[in-house]
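Just curious: can you write whichever protein you like plus the matching structure tokens?

***
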Amino acid sequence: MGAATMRKKAEELVEKAMKGNDASHDASHVWRVRDLAMSLAREEGLSSNSDSMEIVELAALLHDIGDYKYIRDPSEATLVENFLDDEGVEETKKVKILKIINGMGFKDELSGQTLCESLPEFGVVQDADRLDAIGAIGIARCFTFGGSRNRVLHDPEIKPRTELTKEQYMKKEEQTTINHFHEKLLKLKKLMKTEAGKRRAEKRHEFMEEFLKQFHEEWNGRA
């Protein structure tokens, strides 16, 4: 099967599987991550290898299908593997794509699982996903997700959790949207794996810091 046909089928799967998600984790998020990942891959010198570029694109397209935050049915957990099998993706590529998808979450980094950093494709896909979590779009997504879970914007009495574990991060305990910046988003710049990702993260990180400064001044009636 040609790459263009498989890409179209993957896009169709994304639209079907993510329909009904809030706008923080919808198909538009996936399209942005795919475009960022392909751009980072070119900057990192992967564009001369068509297999690498295909792995990057498919992993980016399929990375949020079966996300634990949105899973509605246990069968959704195997959607990606079933898709790759049905489309006849060769075993070595399939294994790499699944390794990237299964290892790129923030929760996995908290637990010390860095199983696939040796794969050059891993860094660009993970960095692309993390870039979409910071900056102006990251701010918009953070408040969209918080609103979808009825979280308060901010409560000075609820302090950000420090030394967060994987289990704590995944628990749906009472938390504020502003605390999510301190618990996760402001940490992502230092966790970028590629030089291209690190460069792009700088401006997005600064934008978030400026936003939080302004937010707190307005919250406290100083601005």
